[in-house]
Amino acid sequence: MAAPAMEGAAATALRSVLSRVQQAAERSSRPADRIRVVAVSKTKPVSLIRQVYDVGHRCFGENYVQEIVEKAPQLPADIEWHFIGHLQSNKVKPLLANVPNLDMVESLDDEKIANHLDRVVANLGRKPLKVLVQVNTSGEESKSGVEPSGCLELAKHVKLNCPNLIFSGLMTIGMLDYSSTPENFQTLSNCRAEVCKELGIPEEQCELSMGMSADFEQAIEMGSTNVRIGSTIFGAREYPKKG
Ligand SMILES: *Cc1c(COP(=O)(O)O)cnc(C)c1O
């Protein structure tokens, strides 16, 4: 698509990201259309999300329930929302009830939350929800993400005991400061190999969500199928991260 003369900065930045994704995909001999770009819009206004939507992008990510619940109803229903933040059990119902076009929860790291999601999806009568198991690949003390040694157990639980959830792969942030290293990506990739082997899932059907603004090209070269990109598209976030 040709860039209109008055295109906004976020739309221009998205185009540049998409072409960098394409080049990284080519370097790793993979089709670029198999790599999903989640435009992470946390802290950013609906008007800016709309600008990126208007040039054709449909996948957006948020990590605070209160924020996605406020923004989603103001935006078109064909957006595929990804929830990428820490999820507490008392927020599961508001999230699912208010965001009917929630496509995926990328940050599942607890069996109880999985059971809760499963039940609420059933109660609301919505279609099954895709989930990724979040893995803490940096070994840093952190509340988010299961240890690499625990990802098989949680993936198995979802696959065997949560009929309203679709186990779709693994996600990692890497370090707590939102950076990550090749070792983190390699760890996630090793986790996938183990989970797929044990659960009998082809690796191509198990996503790897890894890579953010600073490192998405390297993540793609190491097998990422889903990159989560915030500041490079929307500009630096203006107020500090909560929590
Ligand atoms: C904020 C956030 C991102 C995006 O980070 P950028 O460095 O701005 O691209 C990606 N993943 C998660 C889980 C986030 O919370």
TrEMBL record:
Keywords: Pyridoxal phosphate. The modification N6-(pyridoxal phosphate)lysine is found at K42. The keyword Repressor does not apply. Residues 20-237 form the Alanine racemase N-terminal domain. It holds the Pfam family Ala_racemase_N. Its cofactor is pyridoxal 5'-phosphate. One of its GO terms (molecular function) is pyridoxal phosphate binding. Belongs to the pyridoxal phosphate-binding protein YggS/PROSC family. Pyridoxal 5'-phosphate (PLP)-binding protein, which may be involved in intracellular homeostatic regulation of pyridoxal 5'-phosphate (PLP), the active form of vitamin B6. NCBIfam families: YggS family pyridoxal phosphate-dependent enzyme (TIGR00044). This is Pyridoxal phosphate homeostasis protein.
